[in-house]
Amino acid sequence: MPKTTAEMARDLARLSSDCSFLLTHLVRQNDGRSGREARQILESILDLAARSANPKLMASQTSWYGTAASKIYNPATGTFNGTQNNLAVCFTESTLAGLKAHRDVFSANYGVAFDRDYLFGEGANPCLNIQESLLKEKILCPGERYPRRIFNFIPAQLHPFVNIIHESFDATHEREWRIARDLRFNYKNLMFVFCPSEQFPRFSRIQSHGRPVLFDLAWLDGSRIRGCQWRWENAGHPDHLALTLDLLASGFD
């Protein structure tokens, strides 16, 4: 395939129904978290109760390197570095159909979504999904008689972005991106706030010129929608964007 520039890649994505310009962080409820608790987490992310809000997504321990119990071998030193703290904020590059699947599988009703280019500028990167078999090899450590079967060395800067996939774990469906730190942002940086429609009055206070858009993920239940795509259009005001859903079927029931 010929090389593409960033601008060409965006043009190609706009023509593809399976591409998204959104990176979404959802609050999962499939672990027993109540709707009230999920709403409070979103309120905390948005710092909704503060007089002068400082919204922030807190990084948490993630990636294989953040959860592995075994020590990590460093061939440069011939020693084991030990497990490290790998903190990151996770996002999914999902289309509307993908968000519906996340809602159904993970019972997610609350979340926030950003423009992908904005988060890219903040240091977000796609995750690296690597088969376990590609990384393991035998290493004979100095002073030891028998070799160990360990994971090959990957630079520490990449650790927050690495998923090692195998029969028991496969996150490729996530189309996952991460930022390896807390993410502080302004309301104007948000494209969407996802919440049930009855909560719109609570979250509408953060809107300016119609942004961010409040969207109820329950609206994705149109049974005849086979695919859909976000399209943003300049509506004649620099701070106002009109959202169009391009439905690739007959529409909502």
Terminal CA distance? 40 Å
Question: Which structural category fits the helices and strands?
Answer: alpha+beta
Uncertain spans, ≥5 residues at pLDDT below 50?
223-253
Can you tell me the number of structural domains? 1
The overall pLDDT, averaged over residues, is 80
Sheet with the most strands, sense and barrel status: 4 strands, mixed
Helix content: 10-25%
State the helix count: 7
Percentage of residues in DSSP E strands:
25-35%
- How much is the radius of gyration in Å? 21 Å
Give, in spatial order, the strands making up the sheet with the most strands.
Answer: 1-7-15-16
Outline, from the CA principal axes?
elongated
Order of helices and strands: HEHEEHEEEHEHEEHEEEEEEHEEE
Describe this structure in words.
The chain is about 20% helix and about 30% strand. By secondary structure, it is an alpha+beta fold. The strands form seven sheets. A four-stranded mixed beta sheet has the order 1-7-15-16. It is elongated and about 70 Å long. Residues about 225-253 have low confidence and may be disordered.
Provide keyphrases for this structure.
4-stranded antiparallel β-sheet; disordered C terminus; alpha+beta; 7 helices
Can you lay out the helices and strands and say which pair or pack?
Layout: H1 6-14, E1 22-27, H2 35-46, E2 56-57, E3 60-61, H3 64-67, E4 73-74, E5 79-80, E6 87-92, H4 96-106, E7 110-115, H5 116-121, E8 125-126, E9 128-131, H6 132-135, E10 136-139, E11 148-151, E12 162-165, E13 176-179, E14 183-184, E15 190-194, H7 200-203, E16 213-215, E17 228-237, E18 240-247
Parallel strand pairs: 9-12, 15-16
Antiparallel strand pairs: 1-7, 2-14, 3-6, 4-5, 6-13, 7-15, 8-13, 10-11, 17-18
